[in-house]
Amino acid sequence: MEEVLATLCRTSPVDPLPVWVHNNVGHCFNQLILNIIPHVILAVISACYIGTPRSLGAGIVYRPGWKCRIAASFLLAGLSVLDIIPASIWRQGLDSLYLEVLANGITALAWLVHSLALLALYKSPYSFSHGPVTLLIIIFFPVPSFIITLVWRCQTEMGGQHLQPVTIFRLSILCLQLASLLLYIIGYIIPVANRQDLWSINDSWQRKPLITDSGISAPTWQGISVDGESWLSRLSYAWMNPLMKRGYQWMLNRPQDVCHLPRELQAVQVREQFYSCWQEKAVCSQVDSTKRLSAKNAMKSDVFPPPDHPCDTQKSVRLLSVLHAAFGLRFYSLGLLKLAGGLLGFSGPLLLNLLVSFMESKQEPLSLGVLYVLGLFAGSFLGAILRNQFSYEVNKVMLMVRTAVISAIYQKALRVSGSSLTGFTTGEIVNFMSTDTDRLVNFCYSFHELWGLPFQFAITLYLLYQQVGIASLGGLAMALLLVPINKILANCIMANNKEMLKHKDVRVKLMTEFLCGMRVIKFYTWEQHFGTKVYACRAKELKSLRTIKYLDAVCVYLWAALPVVVSILIFITYVLLGHQLSATKVFTALALVGMLILPLNNFPWILNAILEAKVSLDRIQNFLELSDQNLDAYYSKASPSDPSSALEMHHSTFSWSPASREDTETHLPTGSLQLFIQDLAVAKGTLVGVVGKVGCGKSSLLAAITGELNSLGELVYIWDVEKGFGLATQEPWIQFTSIRENILFGKEYDARFYKEVIEACALSDDLNILPAGDQTEVGENGVTLSGGQKARVALARAVYQEKEIYLLDDPLAAVDADVANHLMQKCILGILKHTTRILCTHRIEFLEKADIVLLMDSGRILKTGTPSEILPLVEDAPKLREMDKRRKNRIPSENGEEEDIEPEEEEPNQENGLLKQEEDKKEGAVAFQVYKAYWLAVGSCLALSILLSLLLMQASRNVSDWWLSNWISSLPHAENTSLRKLSTLPSSQLLLFSPGGLISPVLATIPSNGTSDVNFYLTVYGCIAGANSIFTILRAFLFAFGTIQAATIIHNRLLRRVMKATMTFFDTTPAGRILNRFSSDVYCVDDSLPFMLNIFLANIFGLLGMLVMITYGLPWIGLVLLPLAAIYYSIQRYYRRTSRELKRLYSLTLSPIYTHFSETLTGLSTIRATRAAGRFETENQLRLELNQRCRFASNTAMQWLDIRLQMIGVAVVTAIAGIAIIQHQRKLGDPGLVGLALSYALSVTNLLSGLITSFTQTETMMVSVERTEEYATEIPIEPQEELLQVAPDWPSRGHIEFQQVKLAYRPDLPNALDGVTFTIYPGEKIGIVGRTGSGKSTLFLALFRMVELRAGQILLDNINSHSVGLEKLRSRLAIIPQDPFLFSGTVRENLDPLNQHTDADLYQVLEQCHLREVVTEMGGLDRELGERGKSLSVGQRQLVCLARALLTQAKVLCIDEATASVDQKTDRLLQQTIRQRFADKTVLTIAHRLNTILDSDRVLVMHAGKVAELDSPAALRKKPDSLFWHLLHSGQQ
Fold first, then answer.
1. Nearest to 1068 by CA among 919, 1197, 1176, 1183
2. Per-residue pLDDT at 977 exceeds 60
3. Mind giving me the DSSP string for 710-749?
4. Cβ distance 958 to 1108 under 8 Å?
5. How far apart are CA 533 and CA 520, in angstroms?
């Protein structure tokens, strides 16, 4: 090497590269170091921009600055070539030709590359700004060299008398080069596009600024993606720069601001690939599948799943084999990248060792040292790039798997048979898509670790054997013993994890019910009861969590303590075998043992992750294997016995229980009802009425027609079954979107027909009242609409679909008489008159116009005939005529029923009717308050103790390294060289941080330095290690205890606050969003946050320890570390800001996927009956795509950071090696200390990236604390104060007085009650009527203080209700709400959650509500009712709610249309029961049915939020000008 340099520079081999010559920088040093290196950097960085994608259709724009820069670059390239000519023609004594050609050649090449980069940028979106600032910075690098050369030429060549032409020529070139650089800088400064008049190429550009703040042109921003990028841009992630810049400038506000997915990751592509593989597997695994497939292909309809869907042949296709076929090849080939990266990772320690041995010997030539430095640079550089690309590619495969699995689950949910689903709750199925899919996806990473760790283990073991021979086996035995111990621990942790997730599922399910039934829970003051149930579940969950965390702590301890135990064991064995122990052996063995431990420790966790993935895979596989709705087999293809039939069933038997799951008796939604249809034929265009008592199987008949039941007998014939049905279910299913979108349900908007439908379904007036008309958003499950409005919107949706067959399940139940009449005349007998209609109803008065009526009981059709034959048989019929006469006097309301809340003044805000407030996305860094909240939740003393134990642990670790180094230095100097090498070897602790570090074995034999010495050093070392061990275990357990403490406190505060939140909050916030806080955010605080925080703290202290040790060993390194620290700081700041925004956008786009999925599951029957499954699948795909975009950007941002940090690491290592060489040349420095510093330097890279990753991750996890804190401190809560103590029996009389009551739902909305004043005397029965939106239900809300009054007061027994505590007030009143709400639990829990009544009492009220027989048949009071009471029919659920009210001893009862879904006979008996049971109580009834009102003592007529009339029904009927009379009169028309 010296010879080469001496020849090149024409210097002496002793000092081939002099830095200072004749009072100036040496010319050779200047050219090689100050000229060539900056130009190489310029070329490499510029090359990264050559592949920048062009902007689309940007037109020709005047950009003089760019042209200046491009011209200057080409000029500089040309001048460098020109400079070679005089050097080669007129060879002067001073210059070496080779040096000049080399330097000028590289300079010319660098500027040429730079010019091409500028050209690429000029045609890209960058040209609208000044371009990347990096390019400006790097052109300054060569400037010092130009100036030094200029000075040198002036000094050496202008001293003579005559100036040579060549000198003048070369000086001119130098001056021109400096001038070109100046021109370049001027070009950068010139403002971009300063001539406004030239922007008019496209007029719209003038109206919309072309340049957004990020400096990226607005029209082309969206297109940024990795597709079409150059390989350099891909390796350096330069294509991510615009996105990182946007993030840094706070411009990532919407998911759409994120770059597009590469084509290979787009949902459509991935699904096509996945399903074509599913296809092949299905064909291979089933011989007869070919017949089925061809049969299905013959049917072109969209109704049935096309053959490329995973529901065919589901039993025989394994999800894993399909994933393997679809993505396997790509995934396994990534192993090569990992292998290469791992092997290169070994190069660092090997070369460092060689380098230090070179420093030790004074004889080796300099060239060897330089070679080692270059090898070190190349090895670490390539290793970094390979490892980085491996992570990036694995992340891409993970995204593909996620898309495929989520799509498959969603598709399966749309196609699975109704009866199969009964074994699962909605929450469980949503869990398949969230938790289980995530575990399955994480397997991709674990798999490569599974083979990578043993590989690393084997290499290290081989080296250890070379070092200490057979003695290594003793230590190995000990280390291997750790594997089963770790496995046992891992198994315990897994078992507890399973247990914890089980309790978590139960808790989330409870929370779901809690949130869905919030209104009822508040009416009944059951918050405490539900809270207790949730706390009980949480306690079980925390018990498992505690076990997990403590076992985790044991693992951490073993991980840290084992190296010491193993190494001491090895030394003892070594001595017992008769060998002499030496420091060399000690040092090398320690280093290698440290490397053995990493794979041994990680292996059980990798296995665990793989087992978890297996469990999740099995769960998903079981779900995918459920039997599908096979409509082919369900419906008959044969022609009907009568050609005019629309529907025929003969000898058909249907059951809710899935054939395969007879054991899930408890889950059957309608008891164990079976349906037997002997003969049923419905002609086209007829209206069929279906009547029968509650629970006789009317809804089941409709379910059987749509194919939701299991058919056990003959097939069903449906005319034109592909078109589907118009279905209006008994419990209306409303989507969380605008009313118009709900009605259109994916069909094109046809204004004329739409208007007809609205008119026919009596929705016109409702829409006029709503703030944004039909664009008003309805809440989740239509929460802001009243029962009747929901029913009519669902009916309108069915009608708008224009089907041939309509199945209407009691759409008349929740509406008033005249609205029911309107729906019957205008809709069922009007707009639908040419279709086939099957109408189930209890309101038999409307069935006189039916063509045939079916009377059902216990799942059988008792009799079929005309209305005149059947209706008299229904037990209420004798009074039918008389009832009908009274029915004419029914209180009508122009359009509609009375509502559960007044929708039009309810939640929608007036400007746009958008109810759903977008979930807030907090901006910027996680606030200090959030960290403070977490600190306080852990507890200040505990937190300080944790930090102290961490500090002591790190200190003891560093002291042990120093002690070893000290031991080596104290050895007799004679043994110098061979021993000195060893000080470079990283100690066990260091190597824990440098995965894959490989120490070259040092095989020198070393004479002993005295046993007593060895004993002394070993004893001290043992003591230090023991102290370290104690601090480690202390820190592990303290940390586990602290984080559990925090998790407990944070959840409890959150739950307490949510339980006290106002009703308005629940109406405007989707339940999914609140649930998200209780599921994923709480899980994060429980589990993920402590895990990341632990790593982060370890990294911080580790880094501090390292910096101390490096600067102690090699003070000069400070010069390199300072600028690198500045670069590190700026990179991490840039990254963190963007990464945070991307993570937040990811969370934000995740909720809609789950919300949409649970909405789909709720409305499955409607979606399938209307044949809309395909559209819902597309919607799911779009939501998933948006979420994947954010996830991909987030992952790539991490790789963008990683490659930059790796380069900083490469710089540190190369710099240290360089400094070491210079010190060696200058005969400075102690190689022992240098070795210590070098050994640490290798792990700095990993620590730096570990620190920033763990910090960003921790910050991301902190967002969960932020979100829970936001709810725990900011959501509005109901007033908690109690100003007045009331008597235990208050209100004892039931006297109610409203005085000038004014109430608005929100400050910005008009009054819903506007000065209401009236008095109700004890024991009075009051009927409340009025048109929709007149404020009837609002009276109840005011009475229960669901919404606080604006003015006025309400007196109960002359006590102002505002001064009574909320809980007392609500518990002393009773209400039967319109929506029957039951929660999963037993009949007893639903009737009497607080356990205040005996069984006899409960049976008595069930008897009075005609439910005793049903409950006894089901299995008594302890029978589980299933999710939301699904094993009862809707009518039966209303009866249970009535039974609840009967149990209360309240003096005031409010009834909000409590018996809408109940047949006439039962209704009459119930009214009688209410009159008897509440004879001495005050009863307020919002009426839909006439007979519930006309025998009231008085009727209260509401109008526009005011009391219009209050008098006895008889008196009001006599006044022709009264509002009541008008209502009656309009009803008679």
1. 919
2. no
3. EE-SS-EEETTGGG-EEEE-SS----SSBHHHHHHTTSPP
4. yes
5. 17
